[in-house]
Amino acid sequence: KLTSLALQPVITPELVQGRVHLKCSYSPPSPEPPVQYRVLWSRLSSPGKREQVHHETTPQSFSYVEMDGANLRLGDTVFCTVTAFRRGTPEQQSLPEDSKAFYAGIKFLPESLEIAEDGKEHVLTVLSTVPIACPGQDDFCKITLLLSTEDLGSQVPGPPDIALSVCQVDLLPEPCSGSSCAAATVTVTAVTDFTQDGNRGSRISAEPVAPRDVLWRAYTPRDVKVTVRDLPTGNCYSFTDPHIITFDGWRYDNYKVGTFLLCRSESRAFEVHVRQWDCGGHRSATACNCGVAAQ
Questions:
Q1: What pTM does this model have?
Q2: Which residues are listed as membrane-spanning (predicted)?
Q3: If 171 and its partner were Cys, which of 55, 182, 194, 245 is the partner (CB 3.0–4.6 Å)?
């Protein structure tokens, strides 16, 4: 009986003669009678709606389709559907079996981030689910993605609440493994902005820079949404003839002339120095802040 075959179609990306193809593989019935396969390739054209892009009948246990930038483009979610039937009796056929959805393009992992204004670095992986191909290019092959950040949903547009470790990443060709054919990482940190502005949203966008491959030219990857949780900020002060208030509210005066270490973090490379000069004249020994240096 052909009705209950477990064909289990799976889509994997592959380079064929330097061009990006998708391969649909499925399990032949065992023991194998003379069987043909009808393979239908489709893409998600709108939520819940598929559009057919290619179909073929083959005796092979696989089928290829090219990512040509026209029928199949980067950013498409692709399916293959396989039906088996015996040669000469096409009416005796198995139930059609769908592959899992395959997203062709750039993915960010995780797909969204929730971070806090605590100085911690969060690793964001940028990966391509399809091989990086450079047809007709003999020199160094890569796709460069320009990264940018944007504030979301504020009444008054302001700077983004996040900072990236790099402004661009290079995706270099490597053998496909799992869902990744090329990957790079970037660290994301929430900006400590000393203001109580509530939880805010930002987004990270990526854009391929001047790609030679036509497949990448009209492609804009999906954004990553980052929610930044506001945390209260500590404050310390040194003012006038210096009155000093520490982070924990202790108050004292420092009338001395010289350069002093005002603040140093024990957890990161951050410190503030202050320079004080005599400003009291002959009547009183008073010093005033006249310079500051922060690392």
A1: 0.76
A2: none
A3: 182
Cβ atoms of 151 and 200 within 8 Å: the answer is yes
Predicted pLDDT at 124: 95
Distance, in Å, from the CA atom of 84 to the CA atom of 107, rounded to the nearest integer, reads 33
Q: What's the pLDDT score for residue 215?
A: 84
Amino acid identity of residue 245, one-letter, is I
The DSSP element (H or E) to which 89 belongs, if any, is strand 89-93
Residue 120 covered by a domain: yes
* Residue 257 near residue 288, CB atoms below 8 Å: no
Peptide bond into 173 cis (omega under 30): no
Whether residue 3 lies inside any domain: the answer is: no
Q: Which H or E element spans position 217? A: helix 214-217
From CA 243, how far away is CA 255, in angstroms rounded? 9
**Residues 116, 204: one domain?**
yes
Provide the pLDDT for residue 151.
87
The CATH number given to whatever domain includes residue 205 is 2.60.40.10
Q: Could you tell me where the beta strands, DSSP code E, fall in 153-294?
A: 162-164, 168-171, 182-190, 200-208, 224-229, 237-239, 243-245, 251-253, 258-264, 271-278, 287-294
pLDDT means per 10 residues, the chain with 295 residues, are 75 90 86 80 91 92 91 93 82 87 94 90 94 73 91 70 93 89 94 80 90 82 91 87 93 93 90 92 83 95
Final residue in a domain of this structure, among 57, 81, 104: 104
Q: What is the pLDDT of residue 198?
A: 80
Q: Which amino acid is at 216?
A: W
User: What local confidence, expressed as pLDDT, does residue 155 receive?
Assistant: 58
CB 238 within 8 A of CB 256: no
Q: What is the pLDDT of residue 163?
A: 92
CA distances for 13 relative to 77, 105, 139, angstroms = 13, 11, 23
